[in-house]
UniProtKB/TrEMBL annotation:
Name the UniProt record assigns to this protein: WD repeat-containing protein 46
Top-level taxonomy: Eukaryota, Metazoa, Chordata, Craniata, Vertebrata
Region (Disordered): 1-80
Keyword annotations from UniProtKB, A to Z: Coiled coil
Biological source species: Callorhinchus milii (Ghost shark)
Positions with biased composition (Basic and acidic residues): 1-10, 35-49
Domain of life: Eukaryota
Any one GO CC term of the record: small-subunit processome
Transmembrane segments: none
Record-level GO BP terms: maturation of SSU-rRNA from tricistronic rRNA transcript (SSU-rRNA, 5.8S rRNA, LSU-rRNA)
InterPro entries assigned to the protein according to its UniProt record, in alphabetical order: WD40/YVTN_repeat-like_dom_sf, WD40_repeat_dom_sf, WDR46/Utp7
Coiled-coil stretches: 103-130
Length: 287
C-alpha cells in the first residue's frame, strides 16, 4: 500500500546508549573523562578544599577587619568596665539560691530569669555613665551666708536659658500667698489670704483667670489638670474651673486649712481646723 502511493517508509533506528558507541566515540569519551579528571586534580581533593562555612567565616572576618578603624586587633577588647559601686547601686533584691530548687523546670526558668535581672542591672549601670549631670546648688565664699542671696543674683549667675525663666510679681495687697504648680510645671495657681485668686501660664505669662472670693483663703490646689482647681476658703471648700467660674461648693469639708491632691487616686486630701483628715473623690464628687 505504501508502494502504490509512491511513498517510502524510513526504517526507525533503535536508540543508542553510551555502551553501544563505536570505537571512535569511545576514544572521544575517554579523552573527555581524562580532561575532567585532570581538572579535578588541579582543583584538589574534597579534603583539601575549604568548606563553605570556613569560607564564609573568612569573608566575614575580612569585612570586620576593614570596618574596624583600629585595625584587625582591637586594643581595647570587650565592653566598658563598670565600677562595682555603680553595679551595687542598681542591685534589686538578693540573688536566688538555685541549689535549693529541686524541680528542673522551675530551676531552668529561675536561672533564665536571674540572667535577665543581671543583664538589666548591667545595662542600667552602663547607661548611668552617660548621665553625669548633678543637681544644682549654691556655693558661697567663706563667711558668706546663702540667706542673703536673692533671686536676681541667681538669675545673673546662671545661663541665659535658665535666667529667661525668672520673673517677678509684685503682690503686696492681698497676701500672704499660697501657690501651687501643675504636675508639668507650666501653670501657676496663687491664693492670697485676703481672697485674691489668680491662675496663669507662667511660660507665656498669659493670665487664665483672676477673681476675688471676698473672704479669707487658707490653701489652693490644682486638681488632675489645669482645667480645675480647689480653694479652701474661710468656711467651705470650693471647686473652680480655669475661667474662675464656681463649679461646686462642698459643705461637708468645712474650715479646711491645708490640702493635697493625689493624682494617681483622684483624691483631694484635706486637713481641717477641727483636726479631721478627709478625702474627696473628685471623679464622683463623694467623700
Amino acid at each position: 500500500m505504501a508502494a502504490i502511493r509512491g511513498e517510502t517508509r524510513v526504517k526507525r533506528q533503535k536508540a543508542k546508549r553510551y555502551w553501544d558507541s563505536t570505537g571512535n566515540e569511545s576514544e572521544g569519551v575517554g579523552a573527555g573523562k581524562k580532561i575532567c579528571s585532570e581538572q579535578r586534580e588541579a582543583k584538589g581533593t574534597k579534603a583539601d578544599r575549604p568548606s563553605i562555612q570556613t569560607a564564609m567565616k573568612n569573608k566575614q572576618k575580612g569585612a570586620r577587619n576593614k570596618a574596624m578603624i583600629s585595625g584587625p586587633d582591637d586594643p581595647f577588647p570587650g565592653g566598658v568596665p563598670i565600677p562595682a559601686e555603680t553595679m551595687k547601686k542598681f542591685k534589686r533584691g538578693e540573688k536566688i539560691e538555685l541549689r535549693k530548687i529541686g524541680n528542673k523546670n522551675l530551676k531552668y526558668r529561675m536561672t533564665k530569669m536571674e540572667k535577665k535581672y543581671k543583664e538589666a542591672q548591667k545595662q542600667a549601670a552602663s547607661f548611668n555613665l552617660l548621665l553625669p549631670e548633678e543637681a544644682g546648688f549654691l556655693e558661697v565664699n567663706e563667711g558668706e551666708d546663702t540667706c542673703i542671696i536673692d533671686q536676681k543674683d541667681i538669675a545673673d549667675a546662671v545661663d541665659i536659658t535658665s535666667s529667661s525663666k525668672y520673673f517677678n510679681l509684685v503682690l503686696d495687697q492681698f497676701g500672704p500667698y499660697r501657690i501651687n504648680y501643675t504636675r508639668n510645671g507650666r501653670h501657676l495657681l496663687m491664693g492670697g489670704r485676703r481672697g485674691h485668686v489668680a491662675a496663669l501660664d507662667w511660660h507665656t505669662k498669659q493670665l487664665l483667670c483672676e477673681i476675688n472670693v471676698m473672704e479669707s483663703i487658707n490653701d489652693v490646689r490644682w486638681l488632675h489638670s489645669e482645667n480645675m482647681f480647689a480653694v479652701a476658703q474661710k468656711k467651705w471648700l470650693y471647686i473652680y474651673d480655669n475661667m474662675g467660674i464656681e463649679l461646686h461648693c462642698v459643705k461637708k469639708f468645712n474650715d479646711v486649712l491645708r490640702m493635697e491632691f493625689l493624682p494617681y487616686h483622684f483624691l483631694l486630701a484635706t486637713c481641717s481646723a477641727s483636726g479631721f483628715l478627709q478625702y474627696l473623690d473628685v471623679s464622683v464628687g463623694k467623700e
